[in-house]
Amino acid sequence: MVIDDAKMHEFIGKVVNEWGAAEGALITFIGDRLGLFKAMAESKSGLTYDELAKKTGTHPRIIKEWLAAQAAGGYVTYDSTSDTYTLPEEYAVALTDENSPVYVAGFYQSLVSLFKDEEKIIEAFKTGKGLGWGDHHHYLYEGTERFFKPNYVANLISNWIPSLDSVEDKLKKGGAKVADVGCGHGVSTILMARAYPNSSFIGFDFHKPSIERARDLAKKENLQNITFDVAKSTDYPGDDYDLVTFFDCFHDMGDPSGAARHVLQTIRKKNGTWMLVEPFANDKLEDNLNPLGRVFYSVSSIVCVPASLSENGPALGAQAGEERIAEIIKSSGFSKFRRATQTPFNLVFEAKP
User: Does the keyword Transcription apply (predicted)?
Assistant: First the structure.
């Protein structure tokens, strides 16, 4: 065997970089949990490690090391003349502003949850029996809410719904009946209910703790046109829905074909619409071999595919792609299917009876 030393050393360099990224993900989440980034964002100038520790009630020696790691990773800047650290405003928006469309802190919480589930994930890999969504650490649900919300805030009302045929006008005029299936903590349901107060919204999810969280959030919003109920995608109640929505959940399901058939049974036969929001994916594997594809394939292998397998499902995965999804929906009885719009992170599909 002939070893290409340059190629080997290039790979080792990549490995070392990823060691730092993996450890950096954990300490970034710790910074989020302890309010370290928010304290730095509030400062008009740089902070010493002692000042940051005092502001956050943390230990100065550990904070000194944490800041050094963040500076080495490029998350904060270091001024050696004053021995101070600064969080650039642009980074502060992404790490601390929960209302920003680029807010990313929630993803770190989701990442940490997966390390907590290591033994369960390994067992799923060995047995193929899967790992249900409800069997994960609660950080996954909380992190998912925090991570998905900025994207939904940025796109749902301004972009995704307007891309659908004749839906926005119906929602604005009022009287539209909407089912948000697989709603999780209800972020998408609440955004729609707030934007279209004259229409009614029901959020469904099989995970009871998520529905309880959704009810609490809706109560805080004082919304009168929204309810949440525990139900599966294949048996949620009601009929004549003007709009049924699935946000980032179809590929996780144990019976996506059954879910599609149930949507067809419950949707209004004339002018009813089904909107599916899915992770962005090309149809061919080789076209997804990029940084975003790596993120989606990675989370899919430890969350999405095991979730479907836990219900003896087809394990579509987060990179199912338009062709595979269209095949399932059309074979379930829908006559119309199209890509309504897209973002760098999502594909938005529209199906009609």
Answer: no
pTM above threshold 0.85: yes
Residue with tokens 């929602």: 171
Hunting for tokens 């989020």 — which residue is that? 32
Q: How far apart are CA 64 and CA 176, in angstroms?
A: 55
pLDDT, one tens digit per residue, over 235-293 is 999 999 999 999 999 999 999 999 999 999 999 999 999 999 999 999 999 999 999 99
Measured CA to CA in angstroms, residue 12 lies from 21, 79, 292 at distances of 14, 30, 22
Sheet containing strand 336-342, strands side by side: 226-230, 200-205, 177-181, 243-247, 273-279, 346-352, 336-342
User: How far is Cα 45 from Cα 126, in angstroms, rounded to an integer?
Assistant: 52
Eight-state DSSP code of residue 349: E
Q: Which of 152, 157, 161 is nearest to 340 (CA)?
A: 161
Task: Return d(Cα 109, Cα 100) in angstroms, integer.
Answer: 17
Task: Show the tokens assigned to 46.
Answer: 């740089």
Taking only the tens place, the pLDDT of each residue in 174-210 is 789 999 999 999 999 999 999 999 999 999 999 999 9
Contact 204, 180 (CB under 8 A): yes
Tokens of 188: 């998408």
Domains for the chain: give ranges and CATH numbers: 5-96 (1.10.10.10), 105-352 (3.40.50.150)
Tally DSSP H helices, then E strands, for the chain: 15, 9
